[in-house]
Each structure stands twice: as C-alpha cells, then as structure tokens.
Amino acid sequence: MPGLGWGADYNPEQWPEHVWAEDVELMRRAGVNLVSVGIFSWARIEVSKGEYRFDWLDRVMDLLHAGGIRVDLATATAAPPPWLTAQYPEMLPVRADGVRFSHGSRQAYCPTSPIYRDRATALAGEMAAHYRDHPALAAWHVGNEYGCHIPKCYCDTCAASFREWLRARYTLDELNDAWSTAFWSQGYTDWAQILPPRVTPTFSNPGQLLDFDRFADDALLELFKAERDVLRMITPEVPITTNFMSYWSSDDMDCWKWAREVDFVSTDHYTRQDWPRRHIDLAMAADMTRGFAGGRPWLLMEHSTSAVNWQPRNIAKQPGEMRRHSFAHVAHGADGTLFFQWRQSRGGSERYHSAMVPHAGTETKVYREVCQVGDEYKRIAGVVGSTVDADVAVIYDYESRFALRQPAHPTSAFEYQQCVFDCYQALWQAGVMVDFVAPGQDLSKYKLVVVPALYAVRDAHAQLVADYVAGGGHVLMTYLSGVADEHSRVRLGGYPGAFRDVLGVWTEEFYPLHEGETVALDDGSAATVWTEHLHARGASVIASYLDGPLPGVPAVTRNEFGDGVAWYVACGLDESGFARTAESALAEAGITPMNSVVKSGVELVRRRGDVSWLFAVNHTDTDAEIAASGVEVLSGERVSGRLTVRAGDVVVLREEV
Ligand code: GAL
C-alpha cells in the first residue's frame, strides 16, 4: 500500500446492485483505499457443489478498481452455506456434550472435517484462479477469525485426529506419564481408548485438556495452511493473511504459532465500552500484535466506528473516540486500520453493529469522523514501514493461559489475561514502551522483562529467563509463574519450582484469599486474590503482610542473581503497590519513562523510520502540554519546545532530532 490502509469489511451481497456505485463514491469521499470483500459470500459464489458464480463479484471488483480502491479478497470460506451442511451434516461441529450444531449462523464446520477442507480448498483455488490477474487484488484474507465461535469440536473425526496428533508426540507409556493417568485409574492400554475431553462426571484430566487445546489450535492452523498453500501455488506474489483476535475474550488461538504462517499479521480489536480503561487494553492488544508481527508493521483488520452488537449493552463511542482508537493503533505500529464494516447492515444479527456508513446515512457523527480520519491518514502516509522500539518486554504465554483457565486450581478468581493487563497497565502508566515476546524468545535486547504467571513453563524456557538474569538482565515476575511443567504437572520441592533459584525464594503453601478479602502490606499497599507462604532464601524482602493469614511473611522480594536482578510479586498486589514495584524495577534497570503526562491518560508513542514520528493521544477531558519539537503534521504547524494536546485530541509530530 502506498499509504496507511483505511477501509472496512465490504459486504455488497447484502445490498441491491444500485447501492454499489454509491458505496464506491462514498468510499472515495472517505479516503477509503482498502476493503475486505467476500468474507461471508460462499453461498453467493458457489451456489451448489462445484457451480461457481463470479459475475456479480467481478462487477464489484471492477467498480472498486475503477474507484482506486484495493481489495483484501477473502477466500469466502468462513461460513459454509446451508446446501453444503444439509448435504453433509457430518461436517457440522459437535460440542463436548455431544450436541451437534446446526447451520443458520456462521463458522458451522468441524475443523478436521475432510469435506469442509475439500470444499474450502476447492473454493480458495477457484477464487485464486479467477482473480489472479485482477488489478484490485492486494492480499488474500483466508477464513475469518479462526476458532472465534468453534475453537474445538469433539466429534469422532476429531477424536481420530487427536489420537494421530498424540501418536506423533508420545508412546502410550509417555502419554500415561505426561497426563499422570495413574491418578483416578485413567491408565490407557490402547490408543483407541483415548477421546477428546468430552463431558465427564467431574474434572477432566488436566494433561488431556491441555493437549486437546494444543491439538485443536493446530487443527485450525492446518486448515488455514491448506487454503494458503493453494493460494500460494496460483498467486505466489500476493500476500496472505488471516485476521487474529487480539481481544480479551479470545484465548484459543496461539498467535505466536499462527504468525509464523502468514505473510503479514492482521488482527481485530474491539473495545469494551463499559470499561473506562479500554484505551490501555487497546494499547496492549496493539503492542501484542506488533510482537506477533516480529516488530514489523501490521494491519488492524477490524475495529468498530461506534457500538458493537454483542456486548450486554452496546454503548456508542463518544465523538472523537473512534479517531483516537484509530490513531492509537497506528501509533503502536499498525500500517492501516479497517473496520467491521463499511455499510451498516439492514438485516441479519449484526444490524445494530456500527459501520462506516450508518443506517442514518452520511449526515452523521460517524461518517463525518470517518471522512476526517481518512483525510488525516493521507497526511501521515510517511509513517508506513516505520517501527516502534521498546526497552521492556512482557512474556506472553498461550500455554499458561490454556492451563490456568482449567478448573481445580487453588483459586478460580485468577485470570491470566487480567494478570497480564495489570502488569501492562503499570508499564503504560509509567510511560514506557512495551514489546510482547513468546516464551523462549531471545531477551538480550531488553533492559527489563516482565513475567506474568508463566505457569506451565518448559525447562528450556525457564533456563532462558535464569540465563538472562545471570547475564545482567532485570526481571519482574508475578505469582503462579514456574509452578508447573508443560504437562501442567507440579514442579516439586517448593513453589515456584522453575524459578526458586533466580528469585531466591521458596514457597511452602499457597494461601489464596476469600472473595472480597484484602490483606494489608507494610508498605501501605494491599493484596487481594492471592498470597503464599513464602520464605526468602537470599532475596531481600521489599514488603511483607501485616495481617491476613500470613502476617510477617514476605509478599514482594528482590534478588540479585548473577549480574542481574529478579523481583517477585508473590501476591495479588493492588494497583498502586504494583505500580511502585514496577517503577523501582524500571529505575534500577535504567529505563527512563517517555513522559510524565502518560499517567494522566495522554499516551505518547514514537515510531521511527527515515524520520521520527511522535504520536500523542489525549484520552482525557482536559488539555495537556507535552515536550515536542518539529512539525505537527495534522495541522501543518511548526512546534518548538512545547505543544498543547487538546482534550480528546490526537497530534502527530514529525520530529526534529
Ligand atoms: C468479528 C468478525 C466480524 C464481525 C465483528 C463484529 O468477530 O470477524 O465478521 O462479526 O466481529 O464485531
């Protein structure tokens, strides 16, 4: 793309053809240059088995091309049509309790179904052969949000595939050992006895659950790869992506793994409008996506111009909020931001979901703001390709997330994503840039590595953290790290088994707290959710409990290990306590925060390419002053020394350095 991508999912099949020309005209007015087409068009393209109708889509593609708009063309496989599932009901997915889903919404397919795979790859091949030379074709969009509704299927086909997956990794003896099947008489004597974790009388086997999570994710990834490989053969030069889901509720797709298989990373992000700190969640999701992209720019494939349709109360965005969200994604490394969707649907379950063109038309807050941002994006086209630098990394681990969502842990009040957010929030408020890294990724370029609940950790990954600290690195780790191995079996000899030495502590027993219980610490902070009976063995004690079940026991520690330092937060520390600890760790690691205004809600992010770009997003309702010199690109004004960022506003500086 010559500039930042700007556009939406475009679903022309929902509208009579006379609307299409108006669509393209309104897109041009709004500066749209990229749309995703055909995501849910299977029924319209393949009307019965092997009978393809491209005439209507040809006209859409030609119209878009004539309007100078490029197309992220879907393979159209996200929603199999009723004729297909009616003919092959065995391709419909099955729940853990044996209920088979019906068609009538979307994503109604079993991930390992040979029929779905056959028909989906055939369709992808037809699409590629038909549109390979179309000048509007910019990229391929395979599927849509894999696993969004059906991350797992428990049918007999999946059971057979699961067994194959396991046989490629274990002997039967190894599997019995890894899954601790001596417990509750679960020992397997034949592969045929092994099932997906279907509904059981009580808790299922934790090792089985975790392996099924891995298998199910791999099964979806195989589907993606099957379509991708067909596309690559026919259009080797057209980049291929699929949209990840970097939002809170999505936790089945290991994006580290998926990111290795796409030509460029794209993601979707929806804010929870009932959440006052949604802009921090947005920043976290964007930084995470940049991590998946290996630091390279990425594309925001979907967010919303205003309300969605799937939250309990679908609150509209405030004037200016969509603009801030769009610029914040770009600030954190996106080379374009698209919406779901272009024109708000008239019917269907998403008819109350906002779009670039609302039901009420163009004389609206939403369309006006859309046109404004489309225009402003043209002025900052130069940011394309520039990158973001960070001194701090957060280790983000899907396997720990999978393991910790299982039942029968010391507390059900712990949520992995919340723990990651709490860590991230402290860093965001301190005004430092953050990269996300996978466990096992090289840490040497970072001054501080934050490790939230790295629970089900492999030996090699734990060793890497220890080596990093021994070599002079700084680590800030939270409770529930290092407790288990990659099969979710507890590491013995005192928690946190994998990190006792590097932290200079050992824990004899967990003391999770009652709902609503708060324990005071001697530095004025407090803990909820979690405490543990910790002993310092070499570490210095930074704070201890004053009351609660463990008065006098260390709650926060700091240990010198080799040439580095490892901090341990052994409890559910409150926001101010965690912020203080993070600030101490940052200062000791020699990290200077970008700007003190961040804490109040004015976000500062720098992207660097041939020149340096400073983005300031004021998420508050008061004006703020920042230190800045250069040209403010949106207004064209020259700035020397100080700049006022008005309440709710965004500025972008081409900096003089
Ligand atoms: C996404 C999906 C879109 C649309 C959107 C609504 O999950 O990819 O097709 O449904 O949500 O917010």
CATH superfamily of the domain at 392-588: Class I glutamine amidotransferase (GATase) domain
Instruction: Find the CATH topology of the domain at 392-588.
Output: Rossmann fold
Helix content: 25-40%
Write down the Rg. Answer: 26 Å
Helices and strands: which structural class? alpha/beta
Name of the level-1 CATH class of the domain at 392-588: Alpha Beta
Describe the 3D structure.
The chain is of the alpha/beta class and 657 residues long. Among the domains are: 23-32 and 242-336 and 347-382, no CATH class; 392-588, Class I glutamine amidotransferase (GATase) domain (Rossmann fold, 3-Layer(aba) Sandwich), CATH 3.40.50; 602-655, Immunoglobulin-like. Helix content is 30%, strand content 21%. It is built from 17 helices and 28 strands. The strands form six sheets. The protein has a nine-stranded parallel β-sheet with strand order 7-6-5-2-1-11-10-9-8, covered by helices on one side. A seven-stranded mixed β-sheet has the order 13-12-14-15-22-21-20, with helices on both faces. A hairpin with a 3-residue loop joins strand 24 and strand 25. The longest helix is centred in the middle third of the chain and has 29 residues, at 206-234. The model has no long low-confidence stretch (mean pLDDT 97). Beta-D-galactopyranose binds at residues 144-145, 148, 268, 270, 302, 308, 340, 350, 353.
Map the helices and strands.
Layout: E1 5-10, H1 17-29, E2 34-37, H2 42-45, E3 46-48, E4 51-52, H3 55-66, E5 70-74, H4 82-87, H5 114-131, E6 137-141, H6 156-167, H7 172-178, H8 206-234, E7 240-241, E8 243-245, H9 255-259, E9 266-268, H10 278-292, E10 298-302, H11 321-331, E11 334-339, H12 365-379, E12 392-395, H13 398-404, H14 416-430, E13 434-437, E14 448-451, H15 459-470, E15 474-478, H16 500-503, E16 505-510, E17 519-520, E18 526-528, E19 532-536, E20 540-544, E21 554-561, E22 564-569, E23 572-573, H17 575-588, E24 602-608, E25 612-618, E26 624-632, E27 637-645, E28 650-655
Parallel strand pairs: 1-2, 1-11, 2-5, 5-6, 6-7, 8-9, 9-10, 10-11, 12-13, 12-14, 14-15, 15-22
Antiparallel strand pairs: 3-4, 16-19, 17-18, 18-23, 20-21, 21-22, 24-25, 25-28, 26-27, 26-28
The structure holds beta-D-galactopyranose.
